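Recap slide: CSN8/PSMD8/EIF3K domain-containing protein, sequence and predicted structure.
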Amino acid sequence: MAIPVNGSAAGSSSPGLGAIRTAIRSLQFSQLADLLDNLELEIAASGASKPEDWPYAVHVLSHVVNHDLNSARFVWKRTAQTIKESSPELVAAWKIVQNMWTHDHAGVYKALKGFDWSEQVQPVATAISNDYSSCMLRLLSTAYSTVSVADASGFLGLSENETVTFLTQQHGWVLDPASQMLTVRPMSSVVNKKADSSQLQDLTEYVFHLEH
């Protein structure tokens, strides 16, 4: 018997899915992936099947927002092909993972902005977009002393005019109008904050991709 998302077939509530909805509403995304993974295991152990309205796109993106692309890929792989074919939102979520995996920065922003996300998924997609932009800004501030407006625009998902305004007015970068090159002003948070090992590894991988 399937366990419905908004209640249960036998009249008892579904506390796990209630916790998932609460985590989304309260923007507690650090808990979301574990909640969904654990509930999925509980359903499988009980011999039940997932409800028709299981939040597949949220499940994939819950790992993305926690910087765990491998787990997001595994969620996709164990999702039935019929579900993939019938859920445009799940496919759109998977496109984000694919573009992040290949370091296609412009593709990531296009995938995030190019789908009309449901009310349930929108907060997670917004968090991913904001986090990704912040990560790219930290990357530019750390890996470059100068960078072209065009390249910075691609990393930040902004038009070139928006990029110049954002970086010069909000972050103190300096534009050379003749060459269209930006002189980078390192972010104080990057300079002063000691990154943990996972952050350092992520940054190293990004820089390696830029240089090869």
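Residues 145-186 form one domain.
The longest strand covers residues 146-148.
(End of recap.)
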